[in-house]
Each structure stands twice: as structure tokens, then as C-alpha cells.
Amino acid sequence: MEYxxxxxxxLNEKKNNKAxxxxxxxxxxxxKIPLCSGTESFCVACVHAGSEVKVxxxxxxxxxxxxxxxxxxxxxxxxxEEITLHSGIKAPAVVIENDFRxxxxxxxxxxxxKISETDPQEIIRIIKKAGIIDHCGSTMPLYKKIDPEGYKxxxxxxxxxxxxxxxxSRYKLIKEYANEILGxxxxxxxxxxxxxxxxxxxxxxxxxxxxxxxxxGDNKAFGIKFVKSKYPQDKEKxxxxxxxKKEIPLHKSxxxxxxxxxxxxxxxxxxxxxxLGMPAVERNITVGGNxxxxxxxxxxxxxxxxxxxxxFCGGYKKKPRKIICGGIMTGYLQKDTSTVVSKDxxxxxxxxxxxxxxxxxxxxxxxxxxxxxxxxxxxxxxSRFSVKSDTESALKYGIESCNECGCCTYVxxxxxxxxxxxxxxxxxxxxxxx
Amino acid sequence: xxxxxxxxxILDEDTTFSIMTDIIIALCPSLLWGFYxxxxxxxxxxxxxxxxxxxxxxxxxxxLKKKYTVLDLSSVLMGLLFAMxxxxxxxxxxxxxxxxxxxxxxxxxxxxxxxxxxxxxLCSRVILSGIFPKAFSAxxxxxxxxSPLAISTDxxxxxxxxxxxxxxxxxxxxxxxxxxxxxxxxxxxxxxFGTMSSLLLLCGMAYLILKKVISWEIPLSITVTVxxxxxxxPRFESRWFFMAYxxxxxxxxxxxxxxxxxYASSPISKRGRLIxxxxxxxxxxxxxxxxxxxxGAYAGILAASLLSWPLNRLFMPVPYGGKRIPMFDFHFEKxxxxxx
Lengths: 434, 340
Fold this sequence. Notes:
Strand content of chain A: 15-25%
Number of helices of chain A: 13
Number of strands of chain A: 18
Number of strands of chain B: 0
Helix content of chain B: 55-70%
Distance between the termini of chain B: 16 Å
Radius of gyration of chain A: 22 Å
Shape of chain A: globular
Largest sheet of chain A: 6 strands, mixed
Largest interface: A-B, 61 and 40 residues
Structural class of chain B: mainly alpha
Largest sheet of chain B: none
Shape of chain B: globular
Distance between the termini of chain A: 47 Å
Radius of gyration of chain B: 21 Å
Oligomer: heterodimer
Structural class of chain A: alpha/beta
Strand order of the largest sheet of chain A: 2-15-14-18-16-17
Number of helices of chain B: 16
Helix content of chain A: 25-40%
């Protein structure tokens, strides 16, 4: 039985279909670790030029609402300078020169008590100290996402689907570390005090389903549900629409209806933080596209430069027209390869596609955007209102429900840049509110 | 053509140009059959119609200082559709006049007042067939020898080669005895030269549905309504023959597939399309049987397209997590000149 939502689009998969597991890329000569976690506020550095650091040393303190940052290599801090992240934001970063000894910090110890005897507050404190962020939708720190905030959480939904056509690192991670992900799930369930976890698996990935079913056995607290593999199934709101068949009210989080959606990378990081004591210092990315020499999935240290990653994967086969950080549907276009891997980067894709845009975009009223929108909006109206700066009508027609998935712009035959217009409309509304 | 610099970074391959090309490809089998049955004059009419459509579009867009949209083939398609609804004996100037009306008046000028929610080809054909009825209804026999380049066919030739339209006669209750059913289905009777062969038109419809250019709701609901009405209120002794004449003779199938599914004038939602199709079929029968039109399909679909704006407003989806959008909301309907 397959669960799904109305709308969405079917994309041709261009994933790497070799069966290799995740390849560990050794850290390069210098790493530049950004002192922020995605789009949240910046951390305060607690090291300076000349400090000696080891793998796992705390180098940035997040404060009340932020996330701690730890070093991913051992070596010496050269400087603290400003870099541009892949999303275009400028942030401070700690530049560390690698001494290739990979010595681990002395404070890293596995967690000594049994999970079933630990206080939930202690679990959340350790997750906060480990600097883990959420990868499903937002980039907020994980301890904030799993804080029940007074609501009764009925179940957690674990996102094991990956619907971007070029990314495949989540699939390789789940295949290799299925046990660790189940362990992380149990730890988080104890922290939220919820009794049920549902794993959402794509219907084309039966090997993952088999692996999890053999691990779960008869345990009634876990369940597996199959979802249709269409874009954008792996985002939070669409998963809740598919599995719980409920809509989250505007401006509220999913805890309102009693579910929290987590994904596989965060859960493996939780497991590592408890069983090994290691904070979040590395992540898994996909290097793909038809311009890369040997496209593959890598496990890289946070702060590795994109240039080093592309060289590790065989350099360029063809000159790329576009270098994209992130997925191909929601990623950011890069001018050059000077940016670094931050905690929220999921892929590096270099493609040599032909130009797609028209110099005369024109809406022909075909209605394909309405059929494709998973949030049941009418994107051609929202685009028109945003261009005319009519924020009142845009709000009435639901512009705040837009998830920015890009389905409307993908299908438009008139080549109207609907997503860009909607983003402009949202900026106008935000400016008006201030 | 330039690259996108914001998400998403790949786009679907369908463009306005490829949709128009698909529709023209779907029209070709029936068009070529019309050339075979009715000879060179049909080719001349089609050529004049397409060329004048393109010329009028260039002139109108130059005069109104808009960007040129000729290259996306929408005016070529309009010229082709108008030509296919003409009988082969039509005077050559009617092709030029019809395209002037549909492109300059009903498409470009109405777009300024943002009233372009009607099908321009149907509108100009209905109005012109009221002003010049003989030009649109002087049907001739298949394989008749008409002069290709004569400006208008003269009376004597028309009297000799005249064929009665099976549709008109069936509206009055008269069956044609020597018209075999295979000729009616295959397309060898008196009528407009592009709308003859129902089989080839249905092949075109299958191609368009497979390519996802049109959807099945509108053609199905129009034909089912017409078929049901003609079975319930027949004017022959055999109700099945009456249904066959109403469906196959005349341009009902052509209009249901190619003009009723026009994006600008038909509703977007599934329920809206079904209601629109039922209404269009009902109005076609009313125009045919009770108001004495030669071919009521054009006026029937035009009348139904007046409903498409209310149907769109009635069946709007409710945004995620939000409230229902009010049905009548007039202040935004005025479009600016260049909205892109």
C-alpha cells in the first residue's frame, strides 16, 4: 500500500547507480569551518590564531539558540576570517591547518549510562552539546526540533526517502548504517517520550525496507510505510500529508498535530554522539552530474573546500555550465568553487545542460502549475500578484503556504520564472510587516 | 536563450512551441485527407489563411508595441484551425477576413482589456457566418472539380456540384438514403474540408492525450452529451442513425478536440471541465435542432466558454493550511500590459 499526496512531479532519475558504499575522503591541507549552522545565527569563536585543536575540540559556542561547532581535523588554527557560504551568506570561519595526525580530543568519551535509565533532559543536553542540526526542511539545531514544547507527540516519522533526481548519498548512508539509524531513533524516542516511530521508505527501495524489517522484527513501536517516489516527497509537509493525511496550520510547526519528522543523517549523528561521544564533524554528500570524472558519494569533513572535493572525484570530464551546491531542484548556483562544506550542504552537482530560459516568458493559462503544486496553490496567480506588488491578494491566495519546491517553474511551458516571482512576493510581505 | 541562475536548475522539455507543434501534428492527418478529397483549392485556402494569420499578428504587435510572439506558432495554429472549418467552395477573401477578425480584433485588442478568455477563432467564425451565410455553408460533392485560384466559386458550378450537408438534413429530420455509413465514418460527404474524417481526428486526439497536451474530460463530456441527447430525442425513425449523423457529420468532433480544449477559454479543474463539456454539448444540440444553425458546434462551444470563468472561480483549490478563497473578487482581474 503506497502513501502519497496530490500533486508533485515525476522526474527522470540521474543518480549514480554504481553499488559502491560511501567513500571516506581524507581531509585536505586546510579546512575552513563556518561558525554557523546553515541559516541560523553565528557562533562566537572560542579559539584564536595559534591555538592547537584536535578532532572534536569545541571551537565555536552557539549560545541560547544556536548550535555548537567543533573541529573536524587536528592541527593549528591559522586565522578567523570571513567566507561566503554556498547559500550566498557571508559568515566567519575558523581556518585550521591539518597536521594529518587525526588525534582525537581527550574529552570525547562514549556515554556511560544506559539510555533507558537516562533522564530525557540529559539526552537533549548531550544532543545540544554535539552540535547536530536537522536536515529535513529547516536547518535548525536538532535539540530545538525535538523539544516537545508542551504538545503531546504521538509519533515520529523518519524520512528515508530521497526524491531529488541527482542525490544518492542518503540511500548509501541508510544501506550501510541501518543499525545506527535505528539506535538513534530509540534514543530520540526516549528524549521525546513518544511511543511510535514510522519509517517512510520509497517504493523503489525494497532493500532498505527489507533491512529495517529484519531489524525491527515484531516490535510494535516501529512501523514501515511505503511512499511513492515522486518529487518532492522527501520534504516535511508532504511526508505528513502522505502518512498522517493532515495539514499543518499556517505558521505552526508539525508538533501541533502530534508528529515530528526527522531524517537519517541526524539520527546517525545522534547515535555517534552517544555511542562514540563524537560531535557532528563530518557529513555525507553526493558529487554528481555529467561533468564530474567519477561521480560518487563521499563522507567529508566539515570545512572541506569544494575545489578539493571535485579534484578528489577525478576533476572535470567536461567544462561545466553550472556548479550547484545542494540538490538540483532547490540548490544554489555557484560562481566558482571557493566555498566550503557547511553542515547543511547535501551535494555538489556540475552539469553541462543547454540553456533553458526564454527571453519572452508568457503565461498561456494551461494550468500545469496548478496540477503540479503539492500545496494546492495556484502559482500563476501568485506570480502575477507578486509582479504587481499586490500583497493583499497574494496573502489571500495562500502565498505563505508555498514550500518553494520548484514544481511550478519546472512544468511551466511559457517559461515564466514563477518561483523567483513568489520569492520576491514573500520578501515584499516580510518588508511590509516590519 | 540563457541559463537560469536560481532554483530549480532543470526544466521540463515542454515549451509553448512544442505544445503548438504537437497540436499541428495532430491536425495533419485530417488536413491531408481534406486535401485528398477536395483537391487543390483546399490547399490554396489553407495557405492563404496561415499566411494572413501570421501577417496580421506581426502588424498588430508592431502597432501595439508588444513583443513579437509569432515564433511560438500560436497564430499559425489559429490560421490553420480557421481554414479547416471552411467549405472548399468558400471565397478566398473570407480566409483573410476571418483571420483579421480572429487575430486583430478578438485576440490582440481584447487582450488589452484583458477580456481574452474566449476562443478567437470560434468567435470570428460565428460572427462571420452570420454576416456571410453562403460562404460558410455552400458545401460541394467530394472529388468535385473546383477551380483552385478563383476568388469565389460562381453560382453555376455551385448548383451543379452542390452536396447537402448530412447534418443540416438530419436536423430537419431527413435521412440521406444513398449515404453509406462507411462514408460517414471515413469522411466522404459534404462538409468543411478539415473536419471530415472522424477516424483521423480521433487518432490526433489519442496523440495529444498521450503527450499530455489536452485531457480526456472535455472531448468525452461533449460527445457523450450530444450522443445522449440525440438518442433521447431522435428525429429519424432509427435513433442510432440519428446519433451517428449528429456525431459524425459536421464539425462536432473537430471542435470538441481542438477548439473546446483551448487553454485560455476552458476551465482548469476536472469538475469544471466536465460541467463545461456537458453545457457545450447541450448548447450545440439546442442551436442545431431548435435554432436552425447549419453547424451548431461552434456557437455551442462559444456559449459554454462564457461559463469557464465562473467555473474556475467555483472549483478553486483550498491552499494548504489556509482558508477557502472567496468566489467573487473583482479588484485584481485587470491585467497590466506586460505582466512578465
